[in-house]
């Protein structure tokens, strides 16, 4: 057993993560960004759950709650899968904020109900984009169980995006910059 | 308004994406809402006002960060 202090261990871990992020990225490093996104979505889905207004209130108030519950489950499931593979997922608010690729805004509480849905679709798509890369990397690394969890996460995002798009009267891939070649 | 589609070398880390977004988003004449950096495709899509900015200026902002621009297309938006 090593007799390093928690601070010394953290320093080693950070140096290692920094190295991975800036040399050869791996699936676990992308997953820290996924956890960051999920963390931002946790807060944002609550914001929309609380502040949504208009004739869709009852539907969306309930839907956003369902979405943050599912989101919460993925947070734990992905992190535990990482731990089981021997990685150290981000575990403080500060780290999660730094890793998050999504933005939030107190002014968003005043958005129209449809704009809130549209914004969540954007965030899910951005998260899916990172997930796709993580799937490829997990495959290369032959971390098949993690790949499997990531594919299940993507599957869930695909379904949620399709349904939210349908709510807005759109096709699943409509207005999706990631799919549009132009 | 012009619509630019810029192909970059493969982006490895998600934080590259944010750096590019900030650099291009900070230029004059950029339609920020249209700006999208696509991680897996390693592409930048952005609309810009060609009286205030140019594709060369956008490319330069990206290259200054150390990313190679492979090719770019511009058409009327």
From TrEMBL, chain A:
Molecular function terms from GO: DNA binding; ferric iron binding; oxidoreductase activity, acting on metal ions
Keywords, sorted A to Z: DNA-binding
Pfam families: Ferritin
Similarity comment: family membership: Belongs to the Dps family.
Lineage, broadest ranks: Bacteria, Bacillati, Bacillota, Bacilli, Lactobacillales
Protein name (record): Starvation-inducible DNA-binding protein
Transmembrane segments: none
Domain (Ferritin/DPS): residue spans on this chain: 33-170
Keyword Membrane: no
Matches recorded under InterPro entries: DPS_DNA-bd, DPS_DNA-bd_CS, Ferritin-like, Ferritin-like_SF, Ferritin_DPS_dom
Automatic annotation (TrEMBL), chain B:
Taxonomic lineage from the root: Bacteria, Bacillati, Bacillota, Bacilli, Lactobacillales
Residue span, HMA domain: 2-70
InterPro entries linked: HMA_dom, HMA_dom_sf
GO MF annotation list: metal ion binding
Top-level taxon: Bacteria
Protein name: Copper ion binding protein
């Amino acid at each position: 057993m090593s007799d390093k202090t928690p601070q010394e261990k953290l320093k080693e871990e950070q140096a290692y993560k920094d190295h991975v992020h800036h040399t050869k990225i791996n699936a676990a490093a992308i997953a820290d960004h996924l956890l960051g996104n999920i963390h931002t979505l946790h807060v944002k889905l609550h914001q929309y759950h609380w502040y949504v207004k208009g004739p869709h209130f009852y539907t969306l108030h309930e839907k956003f709650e369902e979405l943050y519950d599912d989101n919460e489950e993925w947070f734990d499931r992905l992190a535990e899968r990482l731990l089981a593979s021997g990685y150290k997922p981000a575990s403080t608010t500060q780290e999660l904020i730094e890793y998050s690729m999504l933005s939030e805004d107190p002014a968003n509480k005043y958005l129209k109900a449809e704009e809130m849905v549209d914004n969540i679709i954007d965030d899910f798509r951005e998260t899916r984009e990172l997930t796709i890369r993580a799937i490829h990397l997990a495959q290369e690394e032959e971390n098949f169980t993690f790949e499997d969890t990531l594919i299940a996460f993507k599957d869930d995002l695909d379904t949620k995006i399709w349904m939210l798009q349908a709510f807005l009267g759109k096709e699943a891939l409509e207005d999706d910059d990631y799919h549009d070649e132009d | 308004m012009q619509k630019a589609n810029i192909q970059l070398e493969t982006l490895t880390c998600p934080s590259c994406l944010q750096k590019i977004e900030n650099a291009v988003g900070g230029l004059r004449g950029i339609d920020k809402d249209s700006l999208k950096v696509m991680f897996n495709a390693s592409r930048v899509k952005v609309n810009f006002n060609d009286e205030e900015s140019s594709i060369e200026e956008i490319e330069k902002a990206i290259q200054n960060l150390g990313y190679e621009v492979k090719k770019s297309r511009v058409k009327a938006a």
